């Protein structure tokens, strides 16, 4: 999160930075950290989240399983304050959720739980064919670009009025 915020600092230092149009686009862990960054930094005005899970321990369960049940419970308890599902409800910004129907890592019910937890946000959920690699999936890429352009146009028309 500190590195994401440092990237925002760099963007804001650039001449002509349009602060009101800063979006964070993340895939997998990047999407999960994007949620944490948006919760910590109001400069994030919109999120595109590709294939995040609701809780950090779920990724580690897949990638580096903790076999001891007591250790797993401690691990879950330590991470729970930082779980995306715990923080996304605080966000009142536009969010595009992108998931793949055949994702080998993200269960549909977990994706829906994270989407549902974003109760204050202006949110959109889109499902795609294919697998986890939505960052390389052309229809998802086109949708991301269009979604961002639509928000920018909406914001610009609100400014003009």
Q: What's the topology here?
A:
Elements: H1 2-13, E1 23-27, H2 29-40, E2 46-50, H3 56-63, H4 69-79, H5 84-87, E3 95-100, H6 108-117, E4 123-128, H7 138-160
Percent strand equals 5-15%
| Main sheet: strands, sense, barrel | 4 strands, parallel
Number of helices: 7
The number of distinct β-strands equals 4
Shape: globular
Which structural category fits the helices and strands? alpha/beta
Overall mean pLDDT score? 88
- Rg over C-alpha atoms, rounded to the nearest angstrom: 16 Å
| String of helices and strands | HEHEHHHEHEH
Give a structural overview.
- The protein is α/β, with parallel strands linked by helices.
- Helix content is 50%, strand content 14%.
- It has helices at 2-13, 29-40, 56-63, 69-79, 84-87, 108-117, 138-160; strands spanning 23-27, 46-50, 95-100, 123-128.
- It has a four-stranded parallel sheet with strand order 1-2-3-4, sandwiched between helices.
- β3 (95-100), α6 and β4 (123-128) form a beta-alpha-beta unit.
Summarize the structure.
By secondary structure, the chain is α/β, with parallel strands linked by helices.
Features:
161 residues, alpha/beta, four-stranded parallel sheet, 4 strands
